[in-house]
């Protein structure tokens, strides 16, 4: 080279050209050796040293090699479809599926080992390439956990999650042997913490979806809504679904994978916090399903409530019983399981208090059960109020004709109460048989039952008789024994039906007070109320209160009547008997 530099343009010109051609061949061969994967690390490192001695720009080669290494990472990325075993029928070709999964995992591990050897070689060949190699390794881990993000969008089991986490942890362990500066175990632990937390949250989301689906599922013919089936399905979804979720989480705790071992305390806290938040959101979801936010928070007319989905009323009743079941049965079982398998934790700060507070959940659902029961009663009463409102606002009561039969609104009212009774009997248990009967001294003078005092007054003139009856009614009210009208609603058929009947009769009384009646209109009210007396007392458990409220309607009509002369008992009985015969036919 020194001679060529001094005399290359003279007699040594041909020798210089031949030398340059020879060195170009040497450089080309050295580049080929550097890019060849079949060459040993030592041979490739020696090729780089010789290229440097030849003043070849090695940095450009390093950039190309790192780009080649980066492209090779594409083959190492986990594919969501390859790891998705849940889409395969476990009963079909299970052996072939397991074999293909093992081959796929083995192939992936072999590729990772090749990548690790490449990193080891590059550190020797290019000692200053550490920063780029760390970036490439961390990018690979990031892509692995991005695949988990896609994977978690589906419903998977803890077994599936553990499988893919083991694959990632194997990759991390291999790479950590040659590139400890990348701190890949700590890096992957942070990513795994995010992924496992999302998995836990996802399980609670799917559990809430299952409960909602079971509550809203109709029967096969889609003709009616079986409340009993919905209730049993809802109970099973809440309790069995919660136990299945806990069993799934327990597999995460029991696995000895390094990542999961380091996350055990976190998982315990996430499970406890998750259940607390799950039941809180489930209560809110029940409000959404019941339409409570639309029916109660907004001032809607009774007609709007009536035109809403009738199945909603049954669903509200089911939600009431589900809430009671959660408070009395589900929470104690779940609390017992959490205490047995998910005690400890401690990552959550003590200043925030315990993560799982069963007492708070029980109070919440005890209140929810009462809330939905009262909502059902309110919705049922509003439907009946629509019938009553239409009945009392349509006719001109001052010009009402003489009553010839019981009005058809009585049939509509009884049909509505029968529908309510049918729903209630599907869901609620029977209560203790305790009928509150009233004595004859508490009876209204407008009743058709035998009353010597009333019969004696029949001989008077019509005007005096009417005035005496009205006065006697008011006096009787003053001396009646105290009748407790509205008592606490219990979770029994009789209590709910009785409360709805009482509220309906109070509505009936208020509608009567808004009208003015002639004699015939008053007598029509008397006839309708007298016909209702027997079926309503038969349906309700508190006969005394029903009698009292029916009498109150008669009194209210008499007070609003221009000529309050009641029907004669024989006529009243004749019209009622005719209605009974017509109904039977």
Task: Tell me what you see in this structure.
The protein is mostly helical and 585 residues long. The chain contains 23 helices and no strands. The longest helix is centred in the middle third of the chain and has 36 residues, at 358-393. The chain is rod-shaped and about 150 Å long. Mean pLDDT is 79; it is low at 80-100, 219-223, 295-308 and 437-463.
Short description:
With 585 residues, the chain is mainly alpha-helical. It is 72% helix and 0% strand.
User: Average pLDDT across residues?
Assistant: 79
Structural class: mainly alpha
The profile of the biggest β sheet is: none
Strand content: under 5%
The H-and-E topology, N to C, reads as: HHHHHHHHHHHHHHHHHHHHHHH
How many E strands?
Answer: 0
Put simply, the count of helices is 23
Query: Cα distance, first to last residue?
Result: 127 Å
Poorly predicted tracts of residues: 80-100, 219-223, 295-308, 437-463
Bulk shape: rod-shaped
**What multimeric state do the chains show?**
single chain
Cα-atom radius of gyration? 42 Å
Fraction of residues in H or I helices: over 70%
What brief labels describe this structure?
single chain, 585 residues, mainly alpha, 23 helices, 0% strand, rod-shaped
Strand-helix topology:
Layout: H1 2-7, H2 13-35, H3 41-53, H4 58-72, H5 80-83, H6 94-125, H7 130-151, H8 158-178, H9 184-216, H10 227-254, H11 258-262, H12 264-290, H13 292-295, H14 302-307, H15 311-341, H16 358-393, H17 409-427, H18 452-457, H19 462-479, H20 493-513, H21 519-539, H22 543-559, H23 569-584
Helix pairs in contact: 2-3, 3-6, 6-8, 7-8, 7-9, 8-9, 9-10, 9-12, 10-12, 10-15, 12-15, 12-16, 15-16, 16-17, 16-20, 17-20, 20-22, 21-22
């Amino acid at each position: 080279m020194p001679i060529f530099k001094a005399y290359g343009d003279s007699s040594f010109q041909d020798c210089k050209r031949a030398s340059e051609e020879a060195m170009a061949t040497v450089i080309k061969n050295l580049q080929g050796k550097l890019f060849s994967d079949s060459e040993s690390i030592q041979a490739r490192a020696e090729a780089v040293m010789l290229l440097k001695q030849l003043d070849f720009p090695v940095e450009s080669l390093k950039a190309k090699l790192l780009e080649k290494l980066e492209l090779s990472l594409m083959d190492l990325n986990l594919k969501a479809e390859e790891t998705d075993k849940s889409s395969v029928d476990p009963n079909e070709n299970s052996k072939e599926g397991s074999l293909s999964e093992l081959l796929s995992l083995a192939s992936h591990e072999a590729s990772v080992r090749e990548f690790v050897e490449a990193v080891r070689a590059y550190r020797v060949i290019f000692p200053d390439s550490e920063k780029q190699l760390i970036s490439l390794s961390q990018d690979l881990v990031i892509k692995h956990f991005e695949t988990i993000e896609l994977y978690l969008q589906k419903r998977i089991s803890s077994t599936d999650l553990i499988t893919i986490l083991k694959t990632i942890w194997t990759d991390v362990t291999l790479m950590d042997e040659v590139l400890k500066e990348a701190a890949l175990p700590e890096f992957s632990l942070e990513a795994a913490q995010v992924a496992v937390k999302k998995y836990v949250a996802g399980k609670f989301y799917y559990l809430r979806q299952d409960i909602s689906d079971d509550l809203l599922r109709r029967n096969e013919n889609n003709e009616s809504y079986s409340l009993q089936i919905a209730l049993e399905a809802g109970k099973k979804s809440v309790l069995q679904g919660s136990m299945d979720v806990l069993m799934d989480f327990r597999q995460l705790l029991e696995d000895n994978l390094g990542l999961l071992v380091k996350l055990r305390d976190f998982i315990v806290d996430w499970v406890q916090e998750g259940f607390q938040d799950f039941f809180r959101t489930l209560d809110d979801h029940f409000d959404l399903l019941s339409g409570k936010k639309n029916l109660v928070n907004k001032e809607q007319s009774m007609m709007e409530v009536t035109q809403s989905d009738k199945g909603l009323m049954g669903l509200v009743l089911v939600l009431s019983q589900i809430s009671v079941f959660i408070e009395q049965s589900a929470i104690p079982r779940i609390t017992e399981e959490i205490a047995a398998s998910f005690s400890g934790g401690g990552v959550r700060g003590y200043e925030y208090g315990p993560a799982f507070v069963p007492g708070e959940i029980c109070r919440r659902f005890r209140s929810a059960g009462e809330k939905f029961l009262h909502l059902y009663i309110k919705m049922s009463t509003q439907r009946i109020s629509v019938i009553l409102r239409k009945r009392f606002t349509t006719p001109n009561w001052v010009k009402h004709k003489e009553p010839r039969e019981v009005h058809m609104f009585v049939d509509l009212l009884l049909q509505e109460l029968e529908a309510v009774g049918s729903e209630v009997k599907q869901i609620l248990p029977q209560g203790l048989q305790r009928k509150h009967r009233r004595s004859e001294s508490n009876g209204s003078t407008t009743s058709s039952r035998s009353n010597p005092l009333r019969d004696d007054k029949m001989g008077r003139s019509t005007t005096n008789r009417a005035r005496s009856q009205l006065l006697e009614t008011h006096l009787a009210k003053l001396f009646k024994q105290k009748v407790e009208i509205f008592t606490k609603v219990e979770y029994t058929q009789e209590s709910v039906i009785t409360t709805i009947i009482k509220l309906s009769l109070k509505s009936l009384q208020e509608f009567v007070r808004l009208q003015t009646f002639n004699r015939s209109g008053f007598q029509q009210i008397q006839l309708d109320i007298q016909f209702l007396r027997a079926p309503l007392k038969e349906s309700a458990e508190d006969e005394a209160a029903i009698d009292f409220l029916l009498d109150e309607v008669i009194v209210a009509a008499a007070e609003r009547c221009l000529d309050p002369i009641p029907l004669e008992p024989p006529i009243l009985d004749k019209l009622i008997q005719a209605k009974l015969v017509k109904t039977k036919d």
